[in-house]
Design a protein that fits this description.
The complex is a heterodimer.
Chain A lengths: L1 H18 L6 H26 L3 E6 L6 E6 L1 H24 L7 H23 L3 H19 L6 H32 L4 H8 L4 H18 L8 H7 L2 H26 L4 H23 L4 H28 L3 H36 L10 H4 L1 H14 L6 H17 L4 H33 L19 H16 L2 H14 L9 H32 L4 E4 L17 H11 L6 E7 L8 E7 L2 H19 L9 H22 L1
Antiparallel strand pairs in A: 1-2, 4-5
Chain B lengths: L1 H28 L9 H10 L3 E4 L4 H20 L14 H22 L3 H32 L4 H7 L8 H18 L18 H4 L5 H26 L6 H25 L8 H23 L5
Classes of the chains: A mainly alpha, B mainly alpha.
């Protein structure tokens, strides 16, 4: 346990040390500390993950906190492993990526300082099991990430986004403070383990507490409709941070939900259905909005919402399995969602890192200006393609494995004896299929528009990938993506203990059938690769004596015009968005000269998030009106404020005297 | 398993015949003599022997896409049980791998289309993925109904027991068969969703995606398309052939069903025109509705609402 804390402290110190070093070595200093930290943090983490059990350490704080317990159990270890590795990869990535910002000494210092602080706080968060300590660390995490989102604060958009993020986080933590305060008051202790008595009671209090926790943690995770901060904050942050936020930080929300679930024991059936339904809606809503985006990072942010939905579906399935005393369904649900946590970290980080490479070379995030990048950035585009296939859940890669487990859990739910479960399972089953099909649309769009075809606008500097430090973290994660995709039983070994924490009724040999399924899949997929190779060889063999010529795209003989004529991301998404126009409303503005042969015309389309338009804007409007009623208190006149002080003192005097 | 492998090889060989059958039905219906039923085979081998013209715009994705497409569809066939024979690859949840392998093939084909940088092909690609969102969801509802009905989670065991399940009424059977037939029309790019004969229309989907392919690659693509249709028609046969049939009777019946399915595709193409693009989603939503209805009937039956 001490090792783990040393690891967290080293990452923080790395950020601190970077402040005092020269501009060119800052990134290397932080990287060195992050590497050393792994040697301390990872052994206890993987030890716990693979062997089970838990490490405990009490720390005595002064009174409001009291004795706080730090516990590293398999669940915490899973999230800690992702956090630790994520911090390391971001530190590697930052070496190359932050070169863009040289000459701004102060902001570079603040970048590394806050990255270190955010990573260290996330590591602490996962082991802190005392309500006050947890909330303090939670706030440190939110605040440090706020400073990172506000990194390019000279830009007006970024300032707005970071403030929006800050307010959303404070709104979310309000739910958490209420929930933790209530739970502590009811249980008489600040320690998480004592909450079990309150949360496991199955009365209205435990239900309400769970809902409060779900809202608070859900805001961090990006559960619809509390997701609106994600598509603003992710694009605003520097790419290394976007990857860290999307791959790791939003998972702390999932971690919180899982932790509360673990304390609740067998959940109430209404909560289980609620989580499943909300998650399906989150998934569908996330990917639908992603399809409509032009900004590549904004699109990826919406995809995080989708993946949180898939993780949530798995959690919902697991909860239903617990409710109906079916350990197999529970196992499949939890296994799928936990593996998807890990998987989403891998492919979403690769996608963000890739978009960062694109941004650093082209200085645009608008997909409609990109195109043909696979010729300039072959390695990036290959890894981006693999991650795109993985996030779509296609076989050969890891996304398929976690989705398969969730599908299997849902399918088993279909054979349960309860009609409500059957209907819910079908909702999840078809919902997941719908999400998958939409993700296919979305990622053929991203990859096809950005990396294939021809550049839609001329690149002023020819893009290149000479900066190898940007590719290293992508390469490591791509290897994991392919590894889990082809050898999926590794994931069982890794997650066995975490799943058994959730489903105590499970015996290790109940994993055997799943391992068998995974082995069959693995064999088929290897054969698939072999057959593809064989066919490609056959093609080469057939063509060896034939003429293979290269020419312009035939396109039915229509070869006039420029590369601007290519299909854009908006036009690619248009048929689908037309189908779901009510759910993803678009504003389209066309400007055309009112002459017979107009030379110039322009078309702009903007998408609106309906939850923002119909939930947040009206409710904030009402809140504003209500609070305006009290605006006279803050008049700006000094005399009035002095009077408040006087009134307060008099009231205090009366109260104290009155008590006596 | 050996027998299943042999049966699947027979399917692999005969699949192009059925495409020829559609063309023949259409010619006969129109009062023409038409090309021979084996014409797709001649085309296939002719294309294999040709050279290629490859667009300078493209990347390696364009070249490898047809090979991956055909390999993925091949493994989807291996998962697909042949009536009475069963399948080569089967495990719990294999239908997910089946659907996602077809998805993999689609993903690569769409990228191949976008790789040419042509707005025509982009248009087709965009439509293809849009419509597949509807079809794929409905397909999982079909699988959901079958899993609910049989309480099995693998294609092989589902279809081995579906005809014995007590809730498998003729009504459910008809609904599922019609849903799958719509899926076949959509995935196989046939009328009324798409018209494989019009080459220069802005309204087509699959054919426009492959405009820039030639030679062996085009042969691969055409073979993949026909294999996909055959797979779905075998799915229909799986639903209808009872497992109690003897080997010969089952073979005859499945061959007859697949033939009838393809003749029906030809008849549909002769009778109606391709829908307007804006009407296609409505047609595809029919599949969703039918599959949901069949699910509801099965659920009501199993939980005793209907007797």
């Amino acid at each position: 346990m001490t090792d783990f804390l040393v690891g967290a402290a080293l990452i923080f110190t790395g950020g601190l040390a970077a402040i005092f070093t020269g501009e060119k070595v800052k990134a290397w200093v932080f990287f060195a500390f992050a590497v050393v930290a792994q040697f301390f943090a990872l052994p206890p983490v993987f030890g716990t993950l693979l062997n089970g059990g838990q490490l405990v350490m009490p720390i005595c704080f002064s009174e409001p906190i009291g004795t706080a317990y730090l516990r590293l159990d398999p669940l915490a270890a899973l999230f800690a492993s992702v956090t630790s590795v994520g911090a390391l990869l971001t530190s590697i990535y930052s070496i190359g990526y932050m070169k863009m910002y040289r000459g701004q000494r102060a902001s570079l210092s603040s970048y590394f300082f806050f990255v270190g602080m955010m990573s260290a706080s996330m590591l602490l968060l996962e082991i802190a099991q005392n309500a006050i300590l947890f909330l303090i660390v939670w706030e440190i995490m939110s605040t440090s990430s706020f400073f990172l989102v506000a990194f390019e604060n000279a830009n007006d958009e970024v300032r707005k986004a970071s403030l929006y993020y800050f307010i959303a986080m404070q709104a979310g933590v309000a739910f958490l403070i209420a929930a933790f305060a209530w739970a502590s008051a009811a249980s008489g202790s600040l320690d998480f383990s004592s909450f079990a008595a309150v949360l496991g009671k199955h009365d209205s209090v435990s239900m309400l507490l769970f809902v409060l926790f779900f809202l608070g943690f859900g805001t961090k995770a990006g559960i619809v409709p509390m997701h609106t901060w994600l598509p603003r904050a992710h694009p605003a942050a520097p790419t290394g941070v976007s990857a860290l936020m999307s791959g790791v930080m939003i998972k702390t929300g999932i971690y919180g939900i899982l932790r509360i679930l673990l304390l609740s024991g067998i959940p109430d059936y209404r909560l289980a259905y609620g989580v499943l339904v909300v998650s399906v809606i989150t998934g569908i809503f996330g990917v639908m909005n992603a399809i409509a985006q032009h900004d590549i990072k904004r699109l990826l942010a919406y995809h995080s919402i989708e993946n949180i939905g898939i993780i949530g579906i798995g959690i919902g399935v697991g909860m239903l399995g617990l409710v109906y005393r079916n350990p197999l369904i529970a196992m499949l649900g939890f296994f799928g969602s936990l593996l998807h946590v890990l998987n989403h970290f891998t492919f979403k980080s690769v996608l963000f890192y890739g978009s960062g490479v694109v941004y650093s070379q082209t200085h645009t995030r608008n997909m409609d200006n990109l195109g043909g990048l696979s010729k300039y950035l072959p390695l990036t585009s290959l890894m981006f393609l693999i991650a795109s296939l993985a996030i779509t859940g296609l076989p050969l890669f890891n996304g398929f494995i976690s989705e398969l487990a969730i599908y299997l859990g849902l399918a088993r739910g279909l054979s349960s004896g309860s009609i409500s479960m059957v209907v819910a399972a079908l909702f999840g089953f078809s919902g997941l299929a719908f999400i998958g099909a939409m993700a296919l649309l979305c990622f053929t769009k991203v990859y096809g528009i950005c990396f294939l075809g021809l550049p839609r606008t001329k690149y002023h500097v020819e893009p290149n990938e000479k900066e190898r430090t940007l590719l290293v973290p992508m390469g490591i994660l791509t290897a994991v993506i392919v590894g889990i995709g082809l050898l999926p039983w590794i994931a069982i070994e890794l997650l066995k203990n975490v799943v058994m924490e959730f489903v105590p009724a499970l015996t290790p040999d109940q994993f055997v059938p799943i391992t068998g399924i995974f082995r069959t899949i693995s064999a088929s997929l290897v054969a698939l690769i072999g057959l593809t190779g064989l066919l490609f060889g056959l093609r080469a063999f057939l063509l060896r004596k034939r003429k293979v010529s290269e020419f312009k795209t035939w396109d039915c003989g229509y070869q006039v015009g420029s590369s601007r004529l290519q299909y854009t991301s908006s036009s690619f998404a248009q048929p689908f968005l037309h189908l779901v126009a009510e759910l993803v409303p678009q504003k389209i503005q066309v400007e055309k000269q009112p002459v017979l042969f107009p030379k110039e015309a322009s078309l702009e389309s903007h998408t609106q998030d309906i939850s923002e338009r119909f939930i947040f804007r009206p409710s904030i409007g009402i809140l504003n009106k209500f609070l305006n009623l009290f605006s006279w208190i803050q008049s700006g006149r000094m005399q009035q404020y002095i009077m408040y002080g006087l009134v307060f003192l008099v009231a205090l005097l009366i109260w104290i005297l009155g008590i006596k | 398993m050996m027998a299943a492998a042999i049966a699947e090889i027979v399917v692999l060989i005969s699949t192009l015949f059925f495409v020829g059958l559609i063309a023949k039905v259409k010619s006969v219906w129109a009062g023409r003599k038409g090309s021979p039923v084996l014409q797709p085979y001649y085309d296939f081998f002719k294309l294999l022997g040709k050279g290629e013209v490859i667009s300078t715009t493209t990347s390696p994705v364009f070249k490898i896409a047809p090979s991956i497409g055909i390999a993925a569809t091949f493994f989807a066939l291996m998962i697909m049980p042949i009536p009475v024979f069963g399948s080569v690859i089967h495990f719990e949840g294999d239908f997910v791998l089946f659907a996602y392998l077809l998805g993999l093939s689609k993903f690569l084909m769409v990228l191949g289309a976008l790789d040419t940088g042509s707005s025509f092909e982009g248009m087709g690609a965009s439509r293809e993925v849009t419509y597949s969102t509807i079809v794929e969801t409905a397909f999982f509802i079909v699988i959901g109904s079958l899993a609910l009905l049989t309480r099995h989670f693998s294609f092989e065991t589902i279809f081995a027991s579906v005809n014995l399940a007590s809730g498998f009424s003729p009504l459910v059977k008809i609904l599922l068969v019609v849903s799958l037939f719509i899926m076949l029309l959509a995935e196989g790019s046939r009328v009324p969703v798409d018209d494989p004969n019009t080459h220069l229309e802005l309204t087509m989907i699959h054919e426009v995606m492959v405009l820039d392919y030639s030679g062996p690659d085009l042969a691969f693509i055409q073979y993949t398309a026909s294999l996909k249709m055959t797979i779905i028609s075998i799915l229909i046969a799986d639903l209808l052939v009872p497992p109690s049939f003897s080997l010969v009777a089952a073979c005859a019946l499945s061959a007859a069903i697949v033939t009838i399915v393809f003749v029906s595709v030809g008849v549909v193409e002769s009778l109606i025109a391709r829908s307007r693009i804006s009407h296609i989603p409505q047609f595809l939503f029919l599949m969703t509705t039918l599959s949901l209805t069949s699910f509801a009937i099965v659920a009501f039956f199993l939980f005793g609402v209907i007797r």
